[in-house]
Amino acid sequence: MAFGSKQLTPIVGRYLDDQPKVSASIALDDRLSNLAEENYDLAVRITSRTDCGYAARKLATIHWVYCAAPGYLDAHESIHEPADLVQHRCLVYPAMTLNGAWSFLGERDTKQIAIKTALESNSSMALREAAIHGQGVACLPTYLVSSDIIQGALMIVVPQYRSAIAHTLYAMYYRSKYANALVRSFIDFVVDDIGRMPPWDRALREAVDLPRFCDEMA
Q1: Strands (E), 149-212
Q2: Are residues 124 and 80 in the same domain?
Q3: Engineering a disulfide at 104: which of 50, 85, 115, 161 sits with its beta carbon 3.0 to 4.6 angstroms away?
Q4: In this structure, are strands 64-68 and 137-141 parallel, antiparallel, or unpaired?
Q5: Which domain holds residue 177?
Q6: Are residues 76 and 53 in the same domain?
Q7: Are residues 85 and 140 in the same domain?
Q8: Which of 60, 213, 210 minimizes the C-alpha distance to 143?
Q9: pTM above 0.85, yes or no
């Protein structure tokens, strides 16, 4: 739902501007919808699985960053290394933990740090609000918080590392649906609109001085 609200809806809007005779319907849900039973033309999913019986076209890699509000960081112990997070309140999205730990990928090493959960939620939008209001450090997707970081509402912590967990954004559809020219044109439009590096990641790379190895966000 977070990606649909923040990124997909504007993409659909640009597609409709390009195709003024077309109308669209967006259903936002975090469950796995059955495209046949619910008569959807396609699904846009963030997942690591493509064995759902649908054709899948990769749209982008989804990256996550560790971040917190400047006010929170000013009021608490400095964070220089992932291990420093054991002293902090952590806002946890369950899919981004492994056995109660956050994973960090550096240029030469990978670290797993057991964290103290202050708030857990299956909604990245809820965790973003908590982070912006100074409730702790969160691991959040760049498509959701790129603009917050650029505007200074959030700051990346331990920027020399990135999350060792990443996901993939796919367009999924039945191959029979691909015979529909509108379905094909929409998927092609989304691929072109997102590009090789998604605009939310490109904007973040241009605004924030991240280490060279983080160019792998491309």
Answers
A1: 155-156, 162-163, 167-173
A2: yes
A3: 161
A4: antiparallel
A5: 2-62+166-217
A6: no
A7: yes
A8: 60
A9: yes
Query: How far is Cα 168 from Cα 190, in angstroms, rounded to an integer?
Result: 14
- Tokens (6 digits) for 120: 């857990």
Which of 18, 6, 3, 1 lies closest to 192, judged by CA?
A: 18
pLDDT of residue 213: 42
Same domain, 120 and 35: no
Which residues have CB under 8 Å from 209's CB, separation 6+? 159
CA 87 to chain CA centroid, nearest Å: 26
pLDDT value for 187: 94
CATH number of the domain at 85, please.
3.40.190.290
Grouping H, G, I as helix, E, B as strand and the rest as coil, residue 116 is: coil
The pLDDT averaged over each successive group of 10 residues in the chain (218 residues) is 94 96 90 78 83 84 94 95 95 91 88 94 96 97 96 94 89 81 93 94 86 51
Cα 12 to Cα 190: distance, rounded to the nearest angstrom: 8
Residue 86 per-residue DSSP state: G
Same domain, 84 and 155: yes
